[in-house]
Amino acid sequence: MASTPAFPSAGRLGRAVLSAATTDKTGATTVNIADILTGVAAGTRIRRVVIQADGNPADCTLMLFVYNGTDYRLFDDIDLGDQAASSTTVVGYRTERVYEDLILPTASFRIAAAITVVPTSGNVNVWALGADLT
Q1: pTM of this prediction?
Q2: Whole-angstrom Cα distance, residue 36 to residue 101?
Q3: How far is CA 120 from CA 19, 32, 48, 84, in A?
Q4: Strand order in the sheet with 72-81
Q5: pLDDT 10s per residue in the chain (134 long)?
Q6: 55 φ, ψ to 5°?
Q7: C-alpha closest to that of 63 among 103, 24, 99
Q8: Do 110 and 35 meet the contact criterion of CB atoms below 8 Å apart?
Q9: Are strands 60-67 and 72-81 parallel, antiparallel or unpaired?
Q10: Which of 56, 62, 70, 112 has CA atoms 20 to 30 A from the CA of 20?
Q11: Do 29 and 112 meet the contact criterion of CB atoms below 8 Å apart?
Q12: d(Cα 124, Cα 52) in Å, to the nearest integer?
């Protein structure tokens, strides 16, 4: 156990652009899983994940994975739906998740994402916002 507490100090922002699909929620098939942000030796806390489509994301889910240096494991599964179906005037889809417990404890850990269906148009941008611990 640490003798002093760790606090988030250096802000971090990571991004991945998703345009191809994977349906493997086990993380065993790494094709089309995109890394978003890698932790640091002291640890990195991810506070929020923002999902912003710049087109129509189709009716799919976004899978958020944590890589531990060996393999990817599903951390969250987010339904994106298809809000832009049958419309060319709908604003790009956006949602976010806030996490109290998403920590990348070492530099071998990273957060990654994949989508289950190819977007109808555009891409799905995934942002991880957090800070390194000191």
Answers
A1: 0.89
A2: 17
A3: 10, 17, 26, 10
A4: 34-38, 110-115, 60-67, 72-81
A5: 556 666 667 899 999 999 999 999 999 999 999 999 999 999 999 999 999 988 888 889 999 999 999 999 999 999 987 766 656 666 667 899 999 999 999 999 999 999 999 998 889 999 999 999 98
A6: -155, -145
A7: 24
A8: yes
A9: antiparallel
A10: 70
A11: no
A12: 6
- Read off the DSSP letter of residue 1: -
Question: How many residues would you count in the chain?
Answer: 134
Q: Residue 85 class from Cβ within 10 Å (0-12 exposed, 13-18 middle, 19+ buried)?
A: exposed
Q: Are 91 and 33 in contact (CB under 8 A)?
A: no
Handedness of CA 38, 40, 41, 44 (dihedral sign): negative
Instruction: Round to whole Å and give the CA distance between 127 and 123.
Output: 13
3-state secondary structure at position 15? strand
The single residue listed with the structure tokens 């996490």 is 99
What is the rounded CA–CA span in Å between residue 40 and residue 80? 30
